[in-house]
Protein 1
Amino acid sequence: MASLSRSRRAFWGDIRFLVGIALVLLSIAAVWLIVAAADDASPVLRAHRTITQGEALTSDDFQVVEVGLGALADDYLAPEGLEPGQVAARTIAEGELVPARALTAADRLRTTTVVIESGTGIPEDVQAGTAVEVWSAPLLEDGRTFDVPRILVADAVVREVLRPEGVLADTRTRLEVVIGRADVADVLAAVTGGATLSVVPWESGE
């Protein structure tokens, strides 16, 4: 019996030894994976403010962050990838990692900005980067009444909200909006023709 008891103790001692070795190996593997993941981190640019389509870009618009993107690293903009003369090809949200395709050369962008005056109030959450529709109610021939409102620009983006300030300020709000160059003539014609313009925010679904 004594011999059997010693054999059992020796057996369980061996098991505990092997388990201990396995735990040590697992610990080493975990540390190696953590170090390997850190080594795979790539420096990319992150926007520290909302940047609207068409804005000229500088290094001041971004901060460099280290992110483990793996095979996707080439899809995002590295610090050395920012070149002079580049502009935002679309709105880049504050805090967003910047995709390389979100930048383009200024001469390739087919948008511009115009300042319009909204004849109706706009929601408080309309701000730089908000996608909006521009609606127009044309002035009728009598010069006093307006036609039924219709969509003038279906896919504009707010660059800046110029809200009135001061007690004696006009109650109407002006906005600088980004529109396609093909829409410029219609917008200017509506403004010079006395139409009432309004902006309506909408969700892009992206």
Protein 2
Amino acid sequence: MNADRRSIAYAHFHHVNEEVYRQIFDSLADITPVVQALPTDAALLDLTGALGYFHATPASLALLLQVKVMARFGITATVGIAENRLLATLAAQTTAPGSIQVLSADPQQITAFLDPLPVQALPDIGPKTAKALARYGLHTIADLRPVPLTTLQRITTATTGRLLAERAAGTDPRTVQPQGPPTTLSTSRAFPRDTLNPTAARSALLSIALELGARLRHTAQVTGRLELEVRMADRSSTTRARTLREATDHTAALQHTITDLYDTLALQRARLRSVTVRAQQLRPVQDSSFQLTFDRRTELRRRLDPLLDRANDRFGPDALHFAALLSDPRRHRNAA
């Protein structure tokens, strides 16, 4: 292996919760100290130094990772390996779950791998950018590559155009930054099948807000920042985040911010696979304060939170629901 060539691995851990994810992340230090958390189910590893230390190949280290994670946690890992972060990520995302895909460093083979992929496969390319590119007949990375940089910048923006040109060529200067998972609480909802139904999406967001609020209050914490990630049927994802004016554990405030973040995506006809919300900048509730209001509805909903918590603690998590989450009208007698 060329000493100047890096070997980067992207590992995706299937069906993992936050607590297990943190344990998995800690165990990755046995393979390499250069690990970057990608909460809540992935990590980047720079294997360059580990190859010489273990006298191993990238594929054998990936297999070691898979065996360790399965043996200790019962979790399946999919691993992609390449010479940079972009290619390693795409390698993992385009192979079968539980597999290992190692991309050659040969430029012709990299081009052959990238060409058939849709432009949405590139990180940070959301539905809006993909739609703008599609208007000019740019559907795949093969379509994108020969387009002059100035043309891409006119279609999108100066920054996005430059990013598209670099990534269509398989170039990614970013390095793996050693950092552990931040202190967050995350909640996800995966749809039974990919959906276009806006009502289903909003019900999922309400369900997330209810769960997240209850978890914050049970751990005596408030959040100062919310991040919403929406994953589409084509495996692309888009993320929006917002810092709150005041840290909160109030379900209604969480729901309002989450819904507003979702509306800013303007997804329209995008087919959704899952939504995830991460509560960040956590701190103890005793270190926070909230603004008093004369809005009777807001105050009543604030008082409702502990009542719901007590009812669900005593009678089970399904004791009370918001009516919007109930598909069967006969169950509305338990609706809040």
Protein 3
Amino acid sequence: MLHIVFQEADVSTLQKAIELDEKLNGEVWQIKDEFAVGPIADIYETEGYQNRRDWWKEVLENSPYTDAINIVDDKLTVHHLTQRIQDENEVCWIWMGQNTHDVCGYYWLMSQLKEHQGKIFVLYLNNLPFINEKGQLFYPNNLFEIQPKEFLKAKKLARPISLSEFEVDPDEWKKLCNENAIIRTLEGGKKIVGRSEDYYDAALLNLLNTESQKLSKLLHSFFTKTKIQTGDVFLVWRIKKLIEQNKIVMQGDWSKGWKDITLSLANYKQSEFYTTEM
């Protein structure tokens, strides 16, 4: 059995669950790209793949994750997966939580696996209650939020991806690829909606004023005060764009990394930016 997850933190969480139940025994592989953002036109073709890599190089520049572009080779992971799944005794379980990252990764992956229908299982843990460490009921968005022992109940949800899903879901993903929006958000179930690249800008601007604050503080405020599910590296890329547009004033040197960057709102009235509850 192979297990597929889409976030690094999910790997160790699932591995701990496997230790508790030998029936789950198998390797845990991760699809590492973040398909919820960035260009995806012709994603399975050489040109589209290279366009996406070039975009990520720009986004990752001067970030703490500069080397990430060199360790992400999901195409090779899929190649190894298709080789392994040809074994008549091998099956693959795709795990995903109720978040844009996992669902977009699922679409990208399963669209390449139709010929293995019947051997590809999905476990989508959406709108399901689990028990947290305090014994309280909660609804997780991500797999890594779930206690390992709770996965022993979740495994009962494993089901083969149906033939009809292998027809419908790749078509849905193809529409998103043709649309080629820079941001994609989850609107419930498996419904993904494309958004313009400035979709999060107002939320960022509303957390700034004319007094300087550290970039790290801005990012912390963003993730604690909004319900938006996206990565810090994408937000910093947007901040750079807002600096270019003279909406944000920056002090510091990007080449020295993020830690010394301070930001403030340009000489605008904050009321010019609407308050978002995303």
Protein 4
Amino acid sequence: MKTKLLLLAAALPLAGCISFGAKPPPSLLTLDATSAPAVGADQNSAKTRSITIQVPSTPTAIAGGRVPVQATPTTIAYVKDALWAEPPARLFARLLSDTVSARSNMVVLSTVQSIADPSATLAGELRRFGLDATTREAVVTYDASLTRAGKETVEKRRFEARVPVTAIDAASAGPAISQAANQVAVEVAAWVAAS
């Protein structure tokens, strides 16, 4: 009995030290769309062109929740305490959808909705979505692949935006990457809207 009490007494101080997961950051990062469809605005694919925007593929370095930093041309680190609220590819696809819908007079359809509608398709690869320590910039690079409605050929174009950052930290990463992503989305919207 005395031995059990001693073991229990010894284990109590350790209870506060045990952790079953990483400590979450104070906040999670997301993107803020500078162009979005107006609330209550009607859209009809019978009256205007439509497009399906797929979630882009990504390299492993940016597929997860951490924010990558290109430390040298051949090494990548991650920003301390900076985590995305969801995978960057999904955040970027949603931003593209809002921007294309607001700026190109096109109806953005889901993959399921596009089965019955001969829409254009935008796919691609999100190549860079983070910070570059050597130039102190947020960098977003998107390789877009567009198949226009009724066509079988694929058009490809690379889009990139760079936004200066004052520091390589969580506070600077979110706003700068969001600004770069919006710049890319605006350029993509203009490209897909062109006949």
